[in-house]
Amino acid sequence: MENFIVSARKYRPGIFNTVIGQQSITATLKNSIKNNHLAHAYLFCGPRGVGKTTCARIFAKTINCENITDKIEACNECESCTSFNNSSSFNIHELDAASNNTVDGIRTLIDQVRIPPQVGKYSIYIIDEVHMLSSQAFNAFLKTLEEPPAHAIFILATTEKHKIIPTILSRCQIFDFNRIKVDDIVEHLKFVAQSESIDADPDGLMIIAQKADGALRDALSIFDQIVSFSGNKFTYQDVIDNLNVLDYDYYFQLIDTFLSCDISKSLMTFNSILDNGFDAHNFINGLSKHFRDVLVCKDVETVELLEVGDAIKDKYKVQAIKCSINFLYKGLDILSNADVNYKTSNNKRLHTELVLVKLCNILDNNNNKENTIVKPKEETIIKPKEDKSITKQEVPEQKVEDKPKPVENPEQKQYVPSTPSIKNLISDDKTEENIVEDKDNNVLDHVQEEKEEAFTIEQLTEKWNKYAGKFENEEKRKFRILNNAKLVLNNDFSIGVTAANQIHKETFETDMHSETIAYLREELHNDKITLNVFAEELAEDKKILYSDNEKYNHLAKKNPKLNDMKNMFKLDFQ
Predict the structure, then answer these.
(1) Is pTM, for the whole model, over 0.70?
(2) Dist. CA 246–CA 60, nearest whole Å
(3) CA distances (Å), 299 to each of 181, 289, 296, 394, in order?
């Protein structure tokens, strides 16, 4: 039985041109070899599985190659290349910093560096996971790293660059490796599948590449796992079953239920997802990603950002046509908040179900009669004494609760602004006087006569005091504002209200203006009443000081040395 070699080792790149997704770095290394501009120390940093150690090995082999090709690649035929390929080279040393992280380990390395190479020009030392060295070991390594023998080159590799002390970083040429793109991983997986005579579904390979999260080694490991599960042929369904990944169809179905406001179906779909063993938090993140993918399909230019197979990409394009931009924006906002609040929620399932309910309510298709507003229907009304038909909207009948009996004490009667009666708007005894037709003969407006009774300043003051008295016991702040205000009545029924100060003016305009004007119009039977609010300007010595700034400025005028003390000690208000 033949020994099995995992794909990550079997298809490990041996020359620069076979390195996946790091073209800028390999081009720089090849140029440094071509121009003989070799540094004495390099630092390769980046995520796992992106080719740091692989590039270090290829670089080390190419440096010592006796017959470098015109494309700056190792020949794989000379003595140095052959010994390296057979793992018997005495010039290339690979160390693990995790097991040699002490000062004694570094001292052994320093003694070894002094020995010149037996074959080739350079002795290359590849130190993997260099961030595992202790601070004492780093300090012991500094001098040798800065001024090594002419034949020594150090290549350090790490996944955690931030853990390396700055004095080490300053002595190295730093290369940052990027995560490998999904498309590049898929192409390499297709090559491996073809080499191994495996019939692989392209959509399944796309799922593997996405699951690898930019690490080619992880993608190859998952590929071997799927092949062990399904044999020499695997489908998209085999991949999602083995990796426990949610199928795209779940998300497509949920979007359709959100568009149709079908809360019941969305909850049942989520229940089946939980029954299959999927985590609710991962479901929220997956649904959020699906909303994002639908959004990028709304524009032809951004479709390229979609990292899925061609068949699934067509489904996204179709669903993008159904969804409005506003729907997708609101959905992403809801899911983003749900992701943030998930960990603090005590009932995770209820939290997720409420998210689904909110998503179903983004659009209202009037499926639930109890939760929707009935659209008005059109009917034809014949104007009296004319043979001309006009359109009028019929307002549906609404159940109105019994009105409370009026309070016998008029002083305690609570004011309610008057509104036109719906029954009056649709009453059968409409006349030409209260139905007006617009210029296009399409819209009818109900005309209500405006009240315009004259009143005196005494009557205004009486109603004003009566209105202020309502707040005397419960809302004393409003009572003080109204009670301290000064009134002026103008000929056009505009009332000038002078508040005691600027704060009273702002409070009145924010909290009391609309209620007060509605009350006065009702009580004085005049719909032309308007209120203009001003703040009373007091003399400097009579002003009431409210804020800290006002109090400080007042004291500073009396004693200017306060400003000197404030500036000296850099004081401020809290």
Answers:
(1) no
(2) 43
(3) 22, 17, 6, 42
Token pair for residue 264? 């019941």
Q: How far apart are the first and last CA of the chain?
A: 79
Can you tell me the distance from the alpha carbon of 136 to that of 103, in angstroms, rounded to the nearest whole number? 6
Give the three-state DSSP class for 531.
strand
pLDDT tens column, 272-306: 889 888 889 989 999 999 999 999 998 888 888 88
* Rg of the chain over all Cα atoms, to the nearest angstrom: 40
- Partnered with residue 494 across adjacent β-strands are 530
CA gap 502, 135 in Å, rounded:
64
User: 263-276 burial, b for 16+ CB within 10 Å, e for fewer?
Assistant: bebbeebbeebeee
pLDDT, tens digit, 9 for 90 and up, residues 411-459: 444 444 444 444 444 444 444 444 344 444 443 344 456 778 888 888 8
Going from the N-terminus, what domains does the chain have, and what CATH number goes with each?
A: 7-176 (3.40.50.300), 182-243 (1.10.8.60), 248-360 (1.20.272.10), 377-396+413-446 (no CATH), 457-537 (3.30.300.180)
Q: What is the pLDDT of residues 474-516, one digit of tens each?
A: 788 888 888 888 888 888 888 888 888 888 888 888 888 888 8
Question: In a 3-state reduction of DSSP, which class is residue 133?
Answer: coil
DSSP state of 141: H
Report helix, strand or coil for 352.
helix
Angle at which helices 248-259 and 348-360 cross, to 10°: 50
The DSSP bridge partners found for residue 495 are 489, 531
Residues 6+ apart with CB under 8 A from 554: 545
Q: How far is CA 296 from CA 320, 323, 555, in A?
A: 9, 12, 61
Decide: 471 and 489 in contact? Cβ < 8 Å: no
